[in-house]
Design goal:
The chain is an all-alpha fold and 218 residues long. 59% of the residues lie in helices and 0% in strands. The chain has helices at residues 6-17, 28-38, 43-56, 60-65, 68-74, 81-99, 113-121, 128-137, 148-156, 166-176, 182-195, 207-212. Helix 1 (6-17) packs across helix 11 (182-195) and helix 2 runs antiparallel to helix 6. The longest helix has 19 residues, at 81-99.
Length: 218
Amino acid sequence: MYTVDVRQLHRDLIEVHGRPNKSYSEDGVRQLLTTILSQNVADIQTARASENLFSAYRDYKAMEEADQDELADVISDVGLMNQKSKRIQRSLRYITEETGGEYTLAFLDEMDTDDAQEWLTDIKGVGPKTANVVLNFHFEKPTFAVDTHIERLSKRFGLISESTTADKAHDVLNNKIPDDIKYSLHVLLIAHGKQYCSAQTPDCENLVCKKYCRCESC
């Protein structure tokens, strides 16, 4: 595996896509539930299911106490709706057990990043990617979430080896990527994966792919 200058890659991605605006979420619980919905599905499905979920229930208590089959039907735009409805209600119960009845994740802000990540991943069905999205996008903690786009590009660009598993990729990339560009690089890599460096039909006619990519099309 060749050595990649991560900061130069970041600068080159900005050259292609522009510097991303920060768009931190205002509600950590909503961010957690939305990220659970997004697991292994397209953005458009997540958006529809999220809109349905948050309009169907007046508050988180009603969502937690809803019939599980009913909740699964509400979020049926996403795959694994039965598992995800259980994860949503399990997460809400876990939160209120920690807070004494409040639906808030504000207490995570006082924890260091590793402890906050451990707390979230103790919830069954919440893995490193989901935890890192919540911590980075809501709390601005220095975490780097790895989805399918980022895993694919990280291997093609030489940030991780081809044999690196998805779980191991979180550890490797969080250690390799400087804290101050984790949010920006996350957003930029996803944008590049969607627009150019797709899984099946990559378009390599761009500055970044020509310079870094080692896929068969380059």
